[in-house]
Design brief:
- The protein is mostly helical.
- The protein has three domains: about 160 residues, Rossmann fold (3-Layer(aba) Sandwich), CATH 3.40.50.620; about 160 residues, 3-Layer(aba) Sandwich (Rossmann fold); about 110 residues, Arc Repressor Mutant, subunit A (Orthogonal Bundle), CATH 1.10.10.350.
- The strands form four sheets. The chain has a three-stranded antiparallel beta sheet with strand order 3-4-7. A two-stranded parallel ribbon has the order 1-2.
- The longest helix is centred in the last third of the chain and has 17 residues.
- The protein binds one RNA strand through helix 4, strand 6 and helix 11.
RNA sequence: CUCCCCAUCGUCUAGCCUGGUCUAGGACACCGCCCUUUCACGGCGGCGACACGGGUUCAAAUCCCGUUGGGGAGGCCA
């Protein structure tokens, strides 16, 4: 690593679907690194052992590859600062935590989750600041050691100043001031021995020689903790640049409830990676010449972090669609588009999956187009009046669809067999015969009352497209209010836990 | 509730740093007209914003303060 070389990273957490927000962060990091002749590192932050999955990690890597954002160092390609998967760096974190413990910059906390919960409830009731009350700070070193030796469960917290003032320098936000009193003693090592984000991120960014931390604004509040850790370790912190958060139509942080957020969805829905990238690049930034259609290369050449605007951009799918259309019109001959369609879905492989489902349902070959159209579509036209389940109101059906989506999100293997088992379970729970239960799903997923067999078809459609269409069906049924949603979540956990 | 961030058309944004050239420019969406066997594309036009209130100044979208609004964070999630 030569002096002055730019090194940036994207550090996704492999929990769930590959998120467009990850792509957004990756894009700006990548473009900045490329434009400055630097290196772009991919690091997997899988310290949450309960939620991280290998499957999700693979999906993220695959999605970034599809988008055309290759990394110079990462878990798959290796590099001089590996391993690039945090779950494989436990030893490194443990050493650093021990160093902090020894130097008195951190301490063991033996408080139970129950006590912490009560404490928070009390603070909330009193309208106080929410945060750890530092009870265990006063546990003497000897006693702390003794309790740890006797295998009492503990976490490690960093010491944060009780008073004073912290100044953050951010490339986009300038100076940000924060009182230490508004920051509590953050847990840096969990009781399972894994570090939390704060510790792992600081240690890794330093060890991996990261020069610029470009990430979402949601992290701005925790920079003081990070700075304090850099100070404790005696390291020079990197430069920080906090990007605005992508937003839903109602300006809240982009979420899968209100928008398709999975990169897989956009791929399945027939968007070009270069168009999606271009669109994300347009969120908060514009080419100096004002041109809205630009290549990744052009973005790399022209991106200046200081030019990014701070207002949270709404992810407007309509404009994405328009942009994608420009790519189709301007960058493809008929011949090239034909090839692109084949690459997408109009191919032997796809037909091979559908033919067995359609076979007995075709009276003539010409029935094919109408019968299978839903497999080659983004949204399908649904008549809300056809969205009915015997014995259930529209509102109840919306709730059932929502719980189905949650179940599908948990499904490890989106294939016919598992789907069948799942739907049998659902039908039973809601006390509806399977046949009656599945009926509205045909409508929601295909726009038709009669279609190819449901579970096979869902498998072909894929998890993301299936969930998107169910979500749209919920909207068609009148949507689910926030209050109703919370109630639903409770019912859901009561029903399935 | 506490802290932090943000604030130009419905949306993405230009302009703001270096006040005057801004009766605020472009794009998406919407509406109308033209092109056209339909639609789409394309062309032309329309609708449409400096959140509000104070300052500073000869002059403020641009600088300062306050208010309001929005967002984020406050997890043994990241």
């Amino acid at each position: 690593m030569s002096e002055g070389e730019v090194r940036v990273r994207v550090a996704p957490s492999p929990t769930g679907d590959p998120h467009v927000g990850t792509a957004y962060q990756a894009l700006f990091n990548y473009a900045f690194a490329r434009g400055r002749g630097g290196k772009f590192v991919l690091r997997i932050e899988d310290t949450d052992r309960a939620r991280s999955t290998k499957q999700s990690e693979e999906a993220i890597l695959e999605s970034l590859r599809w988008l055309g954002l290759p990394w110079d160092e990462g878990p798959d390609v290796g590099g001089p600062h590996g391993p690039y998967r945090q779950s494989e760096r436990s030893e490194i974190y443990r050493e650093h935590v021990n160093g902090l413990l020894k130097a008195g910059h951190a301490y063991r906390c033996f408080c139970t989750v129950e006590r912490l919960g009560e404490m928070r409830a009390e603070q909330r009731a009193k309208g106080e600041m929410l945060g750890y009350d530092r009870l265990c700070r006063s546990v003497a070193a000897q006693e702390s050691q003794k309790r740890a030796n006797s295998r009492e469960s503990f976490v490690v917290r960093m010491k944060v100043p009780v008073e004073g003032h912290c100044v953050i320098h951010d490339i986009l936000h300038g100076e940000v001031h924060k009182d230490w009193a508004s920051v509590d003693d953050q847990i840096i090592l969990k009781s399972d021995g894994f570090p939390t984000y704060h510790l792992a991120n600081v240690v890794d960014d330093h060890l991996m020689g990261i020069t610029h931390v470009i990430r979402g604004e949601e992290w701005l509040n925790s920079v003081p903790k990070h700075l304090k850790l850099y100070e404790y370790f005696g390291w020079t912190p990197p430069l920080f640049c906090h990007l605005p958060l992508l937003r839903n139509e109602d300006k809240s942080k982009l979420s899968k409830r209100k928008n398709p957020t999975s990169i897989h969805y956009y791929r399945r829905a027939g968007y070009f990676p270069q168009a999606l990238l271009n669109f994300l690049g347009m969120m908060g930034w514009l080419m100096p010449n004002g041109e809205e259609k630009f290549t990744l290369e052009e973005m790399c050449e022209n991106l200046k972090l200081e030019d990014i605007s701070l207002g949270g951009p709404v992810f407007d799918r309509q404009k994405l669609k328009w942009l994608n259309a420009r790519y189709i019109r301007e960058d493809y001959t008929d011949e090239a588009l034909h090839e692109e369609l084949e690459r997408w879905a109009i191919n032997r492989e796809m037909n091979g999956r559908i033919v067995p489902l359609a076979h007995m349902r075709l009276q003539t070959l010409a029935d094919w187009g109408y019968l299978t159209a839903a497999f080659f579509a983004d949204e399908v036209p649904v008549n809300p009046e056809d969205l009915l389940m015997k014995g259930k109101t529209a509102e109840e059906l919306a709730g059932i669809f929502q719980m189905t989506i949650w179940k599908l999100e948990e499904l490890q293997d989106f294939s016919k067999g598992f789907l069948e088992i799942l739907f049998q379970e659902l039908a039973e729970k809601f006390e509806v015969k399977l046949k009656q239960f599945t009926m509205p799903y045909y409508v929601a997923l295909s726009g038709r009352k009669a279609w190819t067999p449901l579970f096979d078809s869902m498998e072909v459609l894929g998890s993301d497209m299936t969930r998107m269409r169910l979500r749209r069906a919920i909207d068609l049924l009148g949507g689910i209010s926030g209050k109703k949603l919370r109630k639903l979540e409770n019912e859901y956990s009561a029903m399935f836990d």
